[in-house]
Amino acid sequence: MPDPTTRPLAVVTGASTGIGYELAKQFAEHGYDLVVSAEDPGIERAAAELRSQGATVTAVQADLATYDGVEELAGRVTAGPAPDALAVNAGVGNSGSFLDGALADHLNLVALNVTGAVHLAHRLLPAMVTKGEGKVLFTSSIAGVMPGPYESTYAASKAFLYSFSEAIRRELKDKGVTVTALMPGPTETEFFERAGLQDTKVGTSKKDDAAEVAKDGFEALMAGKDHVTAGSFTNKVQAAAAKYLPGKVSAKMHERMAKPGTGKLGSKVQEMRTKPKADAGGS
Q: Domains along the chain?
């Protein structure tokens, strides 16, 4: 176990559950102290569990979809030594037709997934550059490599993070700071319930384990890779294929996965609706 006075520091957002929590566990298990953040009170429970790994953990409950929330977290971090690693993982999804969704929900998604990520990176990266070393991970998605009907703003936000990650990686190539994009596919987290995707093919399909996805992300980050398509072989095939398929083709593929009513329950209901009814008089 590293000496407590020389342990590296990692900042992980969206760390109360799911991939974010598992990323924080990876850091703790590899000798990092932590600053972890999430909007919900569950971040305190997560911090307590992470301390059992021997890490010193500071929990910050803050809404990173707001300017003040990002500033609160950034202020807590910049008050101490420059972090050695930053995992920008906080994000939210939504589903359904763009026009059927509330504008406030779309704008909140952009505020958290895009604006909050840019804001936090801009506040924390300078200290890493001054230090001359650091590792940054952005949680994007394989949804970010294709148009996303019925997840339009979510897929677009993940495409932004992938592009942003690759761009600033290039800008920082001589500064000692590496940037990695984590590209998971469907993962077993609370995401699908929160995004309202339970009645979709992707929502009812088999999903990857969040711990395995986080492990893939952590290892890619430590290796300084530009990105990693985490999880199953299927994810890798889908991400690779999307690079070569016309946008209208990959959009149609995504539609089949994310359109409401395409899940197992939805398909059964649709079948019942279209099946001819038996004669009410009986046999």
A: 9-274 (3.40.50.720)
